[in-house]
Design goal:
The protein is an alpha+beta fold. It has 11 helices and 17 strands. A hairpin with a 6-residue loop joins strand 5 and strand 6. The two termini are 19 Å apart.
Length: 470
C-alpha cells in the first residue's frame, strides 16, 4: 500500500498547488482593474500544467534523502516508507475509492468520445462553390492549411475536431446539413471562430484539461478550472474573430452567438462556436467590455506565471511539510502502541496478520549473526510447543518477497508461518495446518527472516523450504 499512499499524497500536493494558483487567477483581475483575455487564458493553461508538476511532493522526498555509511542514498523518516496498520487501512480504503472514481470517469469520457466518433462517420465533403471560396480565403488569410470543410446530417450545430498527430494532424470543421442555407455572414463568423481555435491549439488544451480532471476527479476545483479554461478560450476566439473584421460587427457577432446558444450541443471532445447559455452571456458581455484586444509580450506572461507559481507553492509546500511531519509522528506513536501491547494485531489482504513482537514467544535463531547467502532455506525441524524458529536473516528491499512452503504431517496441529523484520521488530504471518504455501511481500527495506512457530501444546515436525526473492 505504500505506492498508493505516495500516489495519493502526490496527487493531493499538485492538486492543491493548481487549485491555489487558480484562485489567484480569479483574484488577479480585481487588482488589475480589468480582464485581459490573453493573459488570463495563459494563466488558466499554466494552472492546468501545475496539476502535473509534483514540486511539493519532490521537496518532501528529497529532503529525506541521506548518504548512508555504505555510500548509497537512503530515505530517512517514515513518510516515504512507514506503514502502520491504521495507515494501511486508510490507504486501502482511499485507494479503492480513487481507483473506482478514476475508472468510472475514464469509462464515461470514453463513451462520450465514441459517441462523437460515431456521429462524425457521416461526414460529407462540402462542394458548394460559394462556401468553399470563403473557406479557402480564410485558410489563406489565417495561414491554416490542414483543415477541411464537411457537412453532417446527424449534427445539430457546427463542431471542429482533429485527427492524427504532429505533421500529419488534420482538422475538420463540420456543419449540420441545415448549414447549407447559412447566410454568408453567419458562415464567416463560424469559420473565423473555428479557425482561431485551431490556431490557438484549443482542442489540445481541452484534452489535456480532461486528462487532468480524470486524474483529479475528486477535486471539484479542477472541474471548475476546466470550465474556466474553456470559457476564456471561447472569449479569446470571439475577440480574435471580431478584430478588424470588415464583414460583420461585434453586435452582429453577438446576435449570432445568442441565436446559436444551445446547452445540448456542447461536447468536450470537440470545439464549437455554440456554447451554454450562461457561458454565451458572459462572452457577449466581455465583447462589450474589451474595446481593443492587446496581446502581452512573452516575458510578461513568463514573469507572471513564475510569480503565480511562487505564490501557490509557498503555502502548499509548508502545509505538506507539516503534514509529512505529523504523519511520521503518528507512525512513531502507533508503532509505540503496538510495541506496548502483547495482543495487538491487524489482518491485512489475503488473511495475512501484522503484529509487533513483544518478546513473549520463545525464539530459536538458526545460525545467529549470519546473513543468508543463498536464495533457498530448507525447513526440516522439530519445534517445541510455543516456540518460534527463525531461519537465516537477509537484507531485503520494498517490493521483494519471501515464499514459504511448509508441511506438517499431523494435520490436526495448527502452526504459524511468516517473516520477521529484525530492526522494526514486527512480524507478518499466517496460521495454517498440514501443507501450506504463502508469499509475503516486503513493504519496506530491512533485514528479514522466514520463521515457523508452533502455537500448539505438543512438539511438531515441519518440512519444506523458504525462498527469498530480491
Amino acid at each position: 500500500m505504500i505506492w498508493i499512499k505516495l500516489l495519493l499524497t502526490g496527487l493531493c500536493s499538485v492538486g492543491l498547488t493548481g487549485s491555489v494558483a487558480y484562485i489567484c487567477t480569479l483574484l488577479a483581475p480585481k487588482f488589475m482593474g480589468r480582464e485581459e483575455p490573453y493573459l488570463l487564458l495563459a494563466w488558466q493553461k499554466f494552472c492546468i500544467v501545475l496539476y502535473w508538476v509534483p514540486v511539493p511532493f519532490a521537496v518532501l522526498c528529497l529532503s529525506r534523502l541521506r548518504l548512508g555509511s555504505d555510500g548509497y542514498l537512503q530515505i530517512w523518516g517514515e513518510f516515504a516508507t512507514g506503514m502502520t496498520p491504521e495507515i494501511y487501512r486508510i490507504c486501502r480504503l482511499v485507494g479503492i475509492v480513487w481507483i473506482l472514481g478514476f475508472v468510472g470517469m475514464a469509462v464515461y469520457f470514453l463513451w462520450k468520445e465514441l459517441r462523437v466518433l460515431w456521429t462524425l462517420r457521416g461526414n460529407i465533403p462540402a462542394d458548394e462553390e460559394v462556401y468553399l471560396r470563403i473557406f479557402e480565403s480564410y485558410k489563406e488569410r489565417l495561414k491554416v492549411d490542414n483543415v477541411a470543410l464537411f457537412w453532417n446530417d446527424m449534427l445539430a450545430s457546427p463542431v471542429t475536431y482533429s485527427r492524427g498527430r504532429g505533421k500529419h494532424k488534420e482538422y475538420f470543421i463540420v456543419l449540420p446539413i441545415e448549414g447549407e442555407h447559412y447566410p454568408e455572414k453567419q458562415f464567416r463568423i463560424i469559420v473565423a471562430h473555428e479557425m482561431h481555435h485551431i490556431i490557438n491549439g484549443s482542442l489540445k488544451w481541452r484534452k489535456f484539461g480532461l486528462m487532468t480532471v480524470l486524474l483529479h476527479w475528486f477535486n471539484p476545483i479542477a472541474h471548475l478550472q476546466l470550465d474556466q479554461l474553456v470559457c476564456w478560450d471561447e472569449i479569446l476566439c470571439d475577440l480574435q474573430s471580431c478584430d478588424s473584421s470588415p464583414w460583420y460587427s461585434r453586435r452582429e457577432y453577438s446576435e449570432c452567438l445568442a441565436e446559436f446558444s444551445d446547452s445540448g450541443s456542447v461536447n468536450a471532445f470537440t470545439i464549437s462556436l455554440i456554447g451554454m447559455k450562461s457561458q454565451t452571456l458572459r462572452r457577449i458581455m466581455m465583447m462589450s467590455k474589451v474595446k481593443q484586444l492587446t496581446k502581452p509580450s512573452k516575458w510578461i506572461v513568463a514573469v507572471s506565471c513564475l510569480a503565480l507559481t511562487a505564490v501557490a507553492l509557498a503555502p502548499v509546500s509548508t502545509v505538506f511539510a507539516k503534514g509529512a511531519e505529523m504523519q511520521e509522528n503518528a507512525v512513531a506513536v502507533e508503532e509505540g502502541d503496538f510495541l506496548s501491547g502483547s495482543d495487538r494485531s491487524v489482518a491485512l489482504d489475503g488473511g495475512i496478520i501484522i503484529a509487533y513482537d513483544d518478546g513473549s514467544v520463545e525464539e530459536i535463531e538458526l545460525n545467529p549473526g549470519m546473513e543468508l547467502q543463498t536464495d533457498v532455506v530448507t525447513l526440516d525441524n522439530t519445534i517445541p510447543s510455543g516456540t518460534r524458529v527463525l531461519y537465516h536473516y537477509r537484507s531485503m528491499k520494498a517490493g521483494d518477497y519471501i515464499t514459504i512452503s511448509s508441511n506438517c504431517k499431523d494435520s490436526s496441529i495448527t502452526y504459524r508461518i511468516g517473516i520477521k523484520n529484525r530492526d522494526q521488530n514486527y512480524i507478518l504471518y499466517q496460521d495454517v495446518s498440514g501443507f501450506a504455501n504463502y508469499t509475503f511481500t516486503i513493504d519496506e527495506d530491512g533485514v528479514y527472516s522466514a520463521f515457523v512457530q508452533n502455537t500448539g501444546d505438543v512438539a511438531m515436525t515441519v518440512t519444506g523450504s523458504a525462498t527469498y526473492f530480491d
